[in-house]
Structures are given as C-alpha cells and as structure tokens.
Amino acid sequence: MAEKLIKSTLSEVTMKGRVLTAHGGFYEVLTEGGLYTCRLRGKNKRGEQIAVAGDWVLIEPSKKAEGTIESIYPRKNALHRPSLSNIDQLIILSALQDPEVDFLLVDRLLVIAHYHQIRPLLVFNKADLTADLTAIQTYYRDSYPVFRISARDRLGVEGLLDELSGKTTAIAGQSGVGKSTLINALTGSDDQATASVSDKLKRGRHTTRTTRFIPFESGFIVDTPGFNMLHLPKDLEGRDLSHYYPDFMDQADGCQYRDCLHINEPVCGVKTAVHSGILSDKRYQNYCTLLSELE
Ligand SMILES: Nc1nc2c(ncn2[C@@H]2O[C@H](COP(=O)(O)OP(=O)(O)OP(=O)(O)O)[C@@H](O)[C@H]2O)c(=O)[nH]1
Ligand SMILES: [Zn+2]
C-alpha cells in the first residue's frame, strides 16, 4: 500500500516526454498529459548535457503547460547541426525530375544514415512528371529498395505509411524536391491531434524553420531544415568509408587488403566490379569525391 502511494506521488511530479523542438533555451515537450514548454533545470544548463529535439526526457510540470526538464534519457543516436536525436529512419527524398537527382548528396546522406545506424529509405517524388527510373537503377542497381511517389497527388504515399508507423523518421533532401509537400501529404490537416500540436509549435516562432518532431502514426516525422548541409561524421576514417556502401562490400572479397581504399590498390574487387559494369562508375566517382573530403 505504502509502495503504491509513493509511486503515484512520483508519477504526479515527473512525466516522461519527448522534446519536439528546442529553441533559445525553451523546449516543447510532448507528454501523455499534453504539450509543455520547458526550461532545463539549472544544474543541467551548466553541465555538458543540453537537451536537443528528439530527446526523451523526464519533466517536472510547474504550472499549466510549463515545466522543467529534470533529466535526459540515454540517446540511441545523435546528430549535430542540425542537433537531433533518437532517429530510427531517414527518408532521403529526391525528385525524379525538377530538380535532377543529386546523387552525391544522396550518397552523403546514405553514409551518414548508415554510420548512425539509421535505416535509409530512398524516396523519389514527382512521379507524376515521369516514370523513368533508369538513372536511379543504373546508379544503385538493387542495393536499396526505392519508393516512387507523387506527394502533390498523394500517389504511392500509402506504401510509405507502412514503413513509418511507430518509428521516428527524419526527412532530408535538396531544396525543391518536395519535403514540405510530403510532410503535408503525410500529416495532412485531417489529423486533428497533429494539427493542434503543430499549430501550437508554429505560434510565436520566428519565420526561420527549426527542427520539429511531429507526432504521427504512433511515431514521429522529423522536419529538419538544413539536414542536406550535414558534413560526414568527424571521426569517420577514409579507410572505413566503403563499409557504409553495402554494394561495395559485396565486392570486397576480391580486394587483396582488408583495409583497401579501392583507389590505387592493384588487386581490388570494387574496381574490378566498376570496370565490368557490376557497380556504377558514377557512384564510384562520387565515392572518390567523399573519400577525398575525409583525407
Ligand atoms: N509535379 C510535382 N510537383 C511537386 C510534387 N511535390 C512537390 N512539388 C512541387 O515542387 C516544389 C517544391 O516543393 P516543396 O514541398 O516546397 O519542396 P521542399 O523540398 O520543401 O523545398 P525547400 O523548402 O526549398 O527545401 C513546389 O512547387 C511543389 O508544388 C509532386 O509530387 N509533383
Ligand atoms: Zn578494394
């Protein structure tokens, strides 16, 4: 009885929640009891750990809809600039046409995703403009499943929904590929819970967009402006880069050295596969570009 009493008292003073946005020292935290605007507890502010969007936190509500972040749960993963955490999947969005696919950017995002143990989903938008997937198939072969959608016409979007349920999914891609259109198509205004949360988040904000976690299908969609500006992870070494290329790894048995860079080594399974057309030459050239960035 006594134990029960203590538990119920505790649960009244602290609540678990998720940081949806972090801006200027204020954190919007979604809990089962609703949305709270929080600040960090003083000691946390001076300590190393600052909360970021995506963090699971324990908050102490003070007055209605306000509270203090008491502690931050350990993170599954964390990215910097933009700062966000606990991401399960990354939709790497391109357009089949207008703008042309930026394969170097897509590969950079694939490396970043694999490095942080985030599942990448390659999504190609504007399928209403063209059905031609040749360039993509030539480039990736069958290395990755590919989703083809028209966010504007809501075509193929249902196929994506199955992948998103219960997961935290960030969306990245170059300007103009349709990220906002896709987020709107997914979280559409029919969903009242989402609409009211995002309305509240928009209120009083600057026009500059910040990272936002949007509750969606028992999971979250993450709108991350600036994600396409991300650099390769700082502690990623050149000789490990190809470990984040599953299609290259399939050919690495043919490399003489285990830490083959696939550049100047005379016996290299990856280069052989490029010469014989098993791997795309363009993807290989882009790999060389990313490798030179790391060195
Ligand atoms: N034809 C076609 N156009 C689309 C589709 N989705 C988006 N667009 C158009 O593409 C343009 C860019 O869409 P946005 O959703 O603003 O793209 P974004 O990726 O958010 O762009 P930034 O905000 O610059 O990063 C707009 O004119 C959209 O109407 C689509 O499925 N088909
Ligand atoms: Zn090699």
What's this entry about, in short?
Helix content is 31%, strand content 24%.
Could you explain the architecture of this structure?
This protein is of the alpha/beta class and 295 residues long. The chain has 3 domains: 2-72, Nucleic acid-binding proteins (OB fold (Dihydrolipoamide Acetyltransferase, E2P)); 78-229, Rossmann fold; 238-294, Ribonucleotide Reductase Protein R1, domain 1 (Orthogonal Bundle). The protein has helices spanning 2-13, 42-46, 103-115, 134-140, 157-164, 179-187, 192-202, 246-249, 269-275, 281-294; strands at residues 15-23, 26-31, 34-40, 56-61, 66-72, 78-79, 84-85, 89-95, 119-125, 146-148, 168-172, 212-216, 219-223. The strands form 3 sheets. The protein has a 6-stranded mixed beta sheet with strand order 10-9-8-11-13-12. A hairpin with a 2-residue loop joins β1 (15-23) and β2 (26-31). It starts with a helix and ends with a helix. 34% of the residues are buried. Mean pLDDT is 88; it is low at 1-11, 189-196 and 202-207. The protein binds guanosine-5'-triphosphate (GTP) and zinc ion. Zinc ion binds next to α9. It is found in: Cytoplasm. Zn(2+) binds at residues 255, 260, 262, 268. Its EC number is 3.6.1.-. Residues 85-228 form the EngC GTPase domain. GTP binds at residues 125-128, 173-181.
Task: Give the topology, please.
Blueprint: H1 2-13, E1 15-23, E2 26-31, E3 34-40, H2 42-46, E4 56-61, E5 66-72, E6 78-79, E7 84-85, E8 89-95, H3 103-115, E9 119-125, H4 134-140, E10 146-148, H5 157-164, E11 168-172, H6 179-187, H7 192-202, E12 212-216, E13 219-223, H8 246-249, H9 269-275, H10 281-294
Parallel strand pairs: 3-5, 8-9, 8-11, 9-10, 11-13
Antiparallel strand pairs: 1-2, 1-4, 2-3, 4-5, 6-7, 12-13
Helix pairs in contact: 3-10
This protein binds guanosine-5'-triphosphate (GTP) and zinc ion.
Zinc ion binds next to α9.
